[in-house]
Amino acid sequence: MPINVYKVADIIDGVVVVSGSQRYRGGDAAALLTYLQPPPDADPASAWKLELEIGGDSQQIEIDLAPILSKSYSGAAPLFIFNTEQNKLTPLIYFRNRLFMSERPATRAADQEEVVLRIKKAIYDEETELSSLRAAVANIEAAIEFKKSGVRRDPIPEDVKLLVWARDGGCCVRCGSKEGLHFDHIIPVVKGGGNSEENIQILCQTCNLKKADHIALP
User: For residue range 77-126, what is the model confidence (pLDDT) as tens digits?
Assistant: First the structure.
């Protein structure tokens, strides 16, 4: 039978901020206060606070909590926090500045392994979503900037012009004309073409006008 997990809090700048998830239960706040017991080698500098909104208004309380992270904890894997004094079988699980709980006690090694996997997936999904969101916003901002400034057209380097001129024999590659010659982008700049030698050719004015922003002459 699967063991589902849910996030109950985030640790933000040393403050425990209780999750607003729909799966969050009011009793979990009390559980936070009950579970957080300091280990013998706890770092005093890691003390946390619990921040709760009271009655739906702007009032908040901050309750000093005992640190749970020992100096030896590396953070490489989720940390199960059991409170044996209170006889609690369902632990809090700490990983990457988040606190989770499972729906039922993870008493077996296989259960704890499943809880770890579900927590890691939940965090990786959250981080992947944030990364995708950043990329989407960056693309939107780039499109907005493109509409404002248009395509940036860098001048063709002189050494590229000399190479193309020598390669194409100083005449239009389409009709052979030596009048009204232009350096043309084979793949237009608006379609992502660059200023490399391979993407530049010589066309006369007539052939260049026919080609316009197409990749090939009609």
Answer: 888 876 555 555 667 788 888 888 888 877 788 888 999 999 999 999 99
Q: Domain coordinates of the chain in residue numbers? A: 5-132, 158-211
Neighbouring CB atoms inside 10 A of 37's CB total 16
Long-range contact set of residues 116-125: C-beta below 8 Å, sequence gap at least 24: 116/77, 116/78, 118/3, 118/4, 118/5, 119/5, 119/78, 119/93, 119/95, 120/78, 120/95, 122/5, 122/7, 123/95, 123/96, 123/98
Cβ-contact 3, 115 below 8 angstroms: yes
**β 15-18/5-12 pair status:** antiparallel
In whole angstroms, give the CA distance from residue 211 to residue 218: 7
**Gap between the Cα atoms of 104 and 201, Å rounded:** 70
C-alpha dihedral over 182, 187, 188, 189, to 10 degrees?
-110
pLDDT tens-digit map of 123-182: 999 989 988 888 888 777 766 776 776 666 778 889 889 999 999 999 999 999 999 999
